[in-house]
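Now for today's protein:

——
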Amino acid sequence: MKAEYSNWVPDQMVYGSMGMTGAFLLLFLLFGLPGFLVKGGSTLQLVLGILFGIMVLLGLGASAMFLAWHFAFSYSGKRQMSRQIIEGVARRVDIPKGGRGLDVGCGSGALTIACARRNPGALMIGLDRWGKEYSNFSQKLCENNARAEGTSNTQFVKGDALHLDFPDESFDAVTSNYVYHNISGHNRQEILLESLRVLKKGGIFAIHDLMNKERYGDMEVFRDRLLSMGYQEVVLIDTTKGEFMSPGEARFLFLSGSTLLFGIK
């Protein structure tokens, strides 16, 4: 049995984008070309031609982007950036024997399992809501992957990152990878504080995400806020400068905001 972590950019996202592009191309051919189904030279034909032409170009751009992400993040591909990121985050997580760690937004269980393998004397709990947006991820998939990797110190539960169903200071470690930027309509710094609420004093956190100002606000100010709250160590690591990817890859894949928030409470 082999673990199947699935791609962070699933096939349906790539094929869906290609399908939409094909549909707009067909509409362009039917209604945007002069004299085919719309009178050539008419205002309607001109407007439809411009509209569907723009949509085709946007669709081609989106399809190319999704395809590039798909190949870069594939666990079975040549680049395997997902594996590099997961293992890189897990290397920073040390949990005492008998302790517990929480991985928020565990997806297919990759980071949960990587941390569990690194800390065999501790229990790693992977939490996710497993929504329809990522239907290729599920609790059963996580459990199957843990069995395939031979890890018995994992547990997977359904939950909400906005309101974690755990008391304060419940875990010796809190991790997350590329999760919070997907949660729209909420202050992401406050979501981080909810995740850190369940971290014990002296515990380690390692949270990797697209932490650019448009999504997260000023993370330097947030770091100082955590330090003023009594956190022992808080560092922001730009993972696009050789940590997990090159600056060129980050720009090409639109991952230039990739940052690891790491520290000790």
